[in-house]
Amino acid sequence: MKVFILYHPNSEHARMVEEYARDFSRQMSHDIELMSLESRDGAHMATLYDIVQYPAILAVDYQGKLMRAWQGTALPLMNELSYYTKD
Predict the structure, then answer these.
(1) SS3 of residue 87 by DSSP
(2) CB neighbours (10 Å) of residue 35?
(3) What gap in Å lies between CA 5 and CA 58, rounded to an integer?
(4) Alpha helix (H) residue ranges in the chain
(5) Phi-psi bin for 43: left (phi > 0), alpha (psi -120 to 50), beta?
(6) What is the pLDDT of residue 86?
(7) What are phi and psi of 59, to 5 degrees?
(8) 40: burial class by Cβ within 10 Å (0-12, 13-18, 19+)?
(9) Average pLDDT of 24-41?
(10) Residue 71: which domain range?
């Protein structure tokens, strides 16, 4: 599975999201891909998975099926998210 964070890099939540991703990488030894909503891929992903609140964390399997999504500033616990980063 792959985990993405969709966010606006120039928003008030950008620092919180970037610190969360950095801390997750350090503690869990897995990376989360940060994806800007201002990019074509980020905007497409938000539309594809019907994301309406940001930041949003998406856990997607290798076929592209959405396994779990969290939307808004209430980010999940790192232990909860780590389940979706295991191969």
Answers:
(1) coil
(2) 20
(3) 6
(4) 14-28, 40-48, 78-82
(5) alpha
(6) 77
(7) -110, 115
(8) exposed
(9) 96
(10) 2-85
- Opening angle at CA 53, ends 49 and 54, nearest 5: 100
Residue type, 67: M
pLDDT tens track for 38-73: 999 999 999 999 999 999 999 999 999 999 999 999
Average pLDDT over residues 13-26: 97
Pair 66, 59: CB distance under 8 Å = yes
**Helix, strand, coil % over all residues of the chain, rounded to 5:** 35, 25, 40
How many CB atoms neighbour CB 61 within 10 A? Answer: 11
pTM above 0.90, yes or no: yes
Residue pointed to by tokens 């966010």: 7
Could you give the number of structural domains in the chain? 1
- Domain containing 73 — which CATH number? 3.40.30.10
